[in-house]
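Why should sequence recovery work at all? Because a backbone constrains its sequence more than one might expect. Tight turns favour small or flexible residues, buried strands favour hydrophobic ones, and helices have their own preferences. The token representation captures these environments compactly. In the example below, the structure is given first.
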């Protein structure tokens, strides 16, 4: 089970993502750090456990009100051993975020894709090394239906992003994950599936592993100490 810690950047600080209501996110209040500054939070997470991958959501870029390019580049330079999965609201092939650095794997969120042509162009520009985030609200999928309904468009790494469950401590949407896993099984070479949103504890992660999920994106459970370094080690990361 591959555990990927998440930091959400907004207005220069790490915020607590909750229920997908991005305009209401507040600076994070963490039990493992007294700071909400990005470099401090990353340092704390890596002191907790030597993670190999970090997921960064640049919410200002996603919302089109700014970006955290300098902060992200500093994180890359400070921690060259990390692979960065970066969601910064990619919408078009020429979005410059596609070409930041080989250390960065661009995350393409389905919520931002308006046509299959746009997605194919982005995939080509990324040489298919991007991560696809299949984004969901409580009641519906976000973005074009083709990405949600046809596993043949999925790259090597695909996230089931249940935005309404993010930061909620309410549990994982196992039904939706099972649907994606079944679709993925129809491919000769399937995508690696990651769960995001609602992961509470070690039991949730063990359930995911039993389902065949490759990994999970986690923030709240780490900051609330619901998931410890010993828990992560027990999963054989």
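From this structural description, the recovered sequence reads:
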């Amino acid at each position: 089970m591959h555990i990927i810690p998440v930091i959400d950047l907004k207005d220069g600080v790490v915020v607590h993502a909750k229920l997908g209501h991005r305009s209401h996110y507040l600076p994070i209040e963490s039990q493992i750090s007294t700071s909400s500054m990005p470099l401090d939070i990353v340092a704390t997470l890596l002191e907790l456990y030597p993670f190999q991958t970090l997921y960064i959501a640049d919410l200002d870029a996603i919302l089109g009100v700014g970006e955290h390019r300098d902060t992200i580049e500093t994180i890359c330079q400070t921690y060259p051993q990390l692979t960065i999965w970066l969601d910064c609201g990619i919408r078009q092939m020429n979005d410059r975020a596609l070409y930041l650095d080989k250390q960065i794997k661009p995350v393409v969120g389905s919520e931002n894709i308006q046509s299959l042509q746009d997605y194919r162009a982005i995939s080509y520009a990324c040489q298919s090394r991007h991560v696809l985030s299949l984004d969901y609200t409580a009641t519906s999928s976000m973005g074009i239906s083709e990405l949600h309904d046809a596993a043949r468009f999925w790259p090597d790494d695909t996230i089931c992003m249940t935005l309404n469950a993010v930061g909620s401590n309410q549990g994982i949407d196992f039904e939706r994950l099972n649907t994606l896993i079944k679709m993925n099984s129809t491919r000769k070479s399937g995508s690696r599936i990651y769960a995001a949103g609602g992961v509470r504890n070690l039991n949730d992660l063990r359930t995911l592993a039993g389902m065949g999920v490759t990994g999970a994106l986690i923030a709240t459970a780490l900051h609330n100490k619901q998931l410890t370094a010993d828990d992560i080690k027990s999963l054989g990361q």
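A few observations help interpret the result. The chain has one domain: 2-234.
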